[in-house]
Amino acid sequence: MQQPHIFTVYGLNTEVRQVLEQGFGSIWLVGEISNFAAPSSGHWYFTLKDERAQIRAAMFRNANQRVRIRPQHGMQVLVRAKLTVYEPRGDYQLIIEHMEDAGAGLLQQKYEQLKAKLQAEGLFDPAHKQPLPESIKKVGVITSPTGAAVRDILAVLKRRDPSVEVIIYPSAVQGQAATGELLHMLQRAISRNEVDALIMARGGGSLEDLWCFNDEQLAYALHSCPIPTISAVGHEVDFTICDFVADVRAPTPSAAAELVSRDQRETLQRISHLAHRVEQAWARYFRQYQQHQQHLAMRLQQQHPQRQLQQNNQRLDELSARVQLAMRRLLQQQQRQQTQLASRLSTVHPERRLAPLQQQQQQLKQRLQLAMSQLLKQQRQRFQSLSQGLHMVSPLQTIERGYAVVRKADGAVVRNPAELATGEAFQVKVAAGDFKAVKTE
């Protein structure tokens, strides 16, 4: 029985390389560049892809020096290459001999079109974005539960702030089913409303690898999410639609974990710094308090009742001396005024004028008595003369001679009998008295 040929791994890769190189030779290929890298050696390494597959490619320095275009991520190119196998890893790849621009890649075109549409609709508007909470106690992560992204996030949170609780919403992050799962997990996180912030994370990859994060429906759901969201998809140079729609974009999953956590070392340093500031503030306050107490003690000493009493006593003594001096001056002034008044009074004293006034008074008294006697005598004589004249013409004198005076009831004198009516009463006055009478005719 013939023994089978046993290959080594390297030998098998060598055989495969020879078969590929001899079987295909130089081929022309259209594809989109992804994961382009140009190290210092001058060689180019990238991936050529379309919507359904990808292949590694390399273009060494002696060939790429003749290329007129500068390859970049997303560029559609036409290349002439040889198919070979990179034996150490067993990867089959293209060795590019010629490259020219074949237009923008289909995926990149779709990406740009969707980006422009959503931007026009306002999904990227910064005014709509929510700030992250100041204190995050619970964070949700939508990602593959077995991927490197979730391990990086958990490692950072454990190192920085182990108190942050993490809830994993498991989802595929690559392939056709990934879009639906991401959308479903986002809706579940919204309905549960159990986290303070939500991270959508995945490690780096090509545009095809990250294409599930460029879905239009996922963008709308992320835009309407009431929970603050962080997009941490790919590496720092990778951008997806979710990066533009989310409230915050983190360059890597680890950076997203840092955004939702506080470094304990920083917290301890801040606490130490605050404690030092409190100590300094307390020392400053204590110095100010001592200075204030010294100031109050000095003011109290200046305003102490005993000191005030001493000042008042001194002031009283000064005022007493001023009062005594003023009293002496006033007394002296009064004495001088009294002396002046006494001198003036002595010149006009009544006793000096009393004797002449008494003599004048006696003379005036005698003249007054003489004048009164003469006036009284004259008045008596005049009275007697008038009395005699009046007696001569008095009605009473006439009545004494037998006449009578007739008066009406109202006192009017009746001079003519016709003035009285028949039956009218009247009064008659005679020397011996009065009587009433009535006229008969």
Automatic annotation (TrEMBL):
<keyword id="KW-0378">Hydrolase</keyword>
<keyword id="KW-0269">Exonuclease</keyword>
<feature type="domain" description="Exonuclease VII large subunit C-terminal">
    <location>
        <begin position="123"/>
        <end position="437"/>
    </location>
</feature>
<feature type="domain" description="OB-fold nucleic acid binding">
    <location>
        <begin position="7"/>
        <end position="100"/>
    </location>
</feature>
<dbReference type="GO" id="GO:0008855">
    <property type="term" value="F:exodeoxyribonuclease VII activity"/>
</dbReference>
<dbReference type="GO" id="GO:0006308">
    <property type="term" value="P:DNA catabolic process"/>
</dbReference>
<comment type="subunit">
    <text>Heterooligomer composed of large and small subunits.</text>
</comment>
<dbReference type="Pfam" id="PF02601">
    <property type="entry name" value="Exonuc_VII_L"/>
</dbReference>
<keyword id="KW-0540">Nuclease</keyword>
<dbReference type="InterPro" id="IPR003753">
    <property type="entry name" value="Exonuc_VII_L"/>
</dbReference>
<dbReference type="InterPro" id="IPR020579">
    <property type="entry name" value="Exonuc_VII_lsu_C"/>
</dbReference>
<dbReference type="GO" id="GO:0003676">
    <property type="term" value="F:nucleic acid binding"/>
</dbReference>
<keyword id="KW-0175">Coiled coil</keyword>
<protein>
    <recommendedName>
        <fullName>Exodeoxyribonuclease 7 large subunit</fullName>
        <ecNumber>3.1.11.6</ecNumber>
    </recommendedName>
</protein>
<dbReference type="GO" id="GO:0009318">
    <property type="term" value="C:exodeoxyribonuclease VII complex"/>
</dbReference>
<feature type="coiled-coil region">
    <location>
        <begin position="309"/>
        <end position="381"/>
    </location>
</feature>
<keyword id="KW-0963">Cytoplasm</keyword>
<comment type="function">
    <text>Bidirectionally degrades single-stranded DNA into large acid-insoluble oligonucleotides, which are then degraded further into small acid-soluble oligonucleotides.</text>
</comment>
<comment type="similarity">
    <text>Belongs to the XseA family.</text>
</comment>
<dbReference type="Pfam" id="PF13742">
    <property type="entry name" value="tRNA_anti_2"/>
</dbReference>
<dbReference type="GO" id="GO:0005737">
    <property type="term" value="C:cytoplasm"/>
</dbReference>
<dbReference type="InterPro" id="IPR025824">
    <property type="entry name" value="OB-fold_nuc-bd_dom"/>
</dbReference>
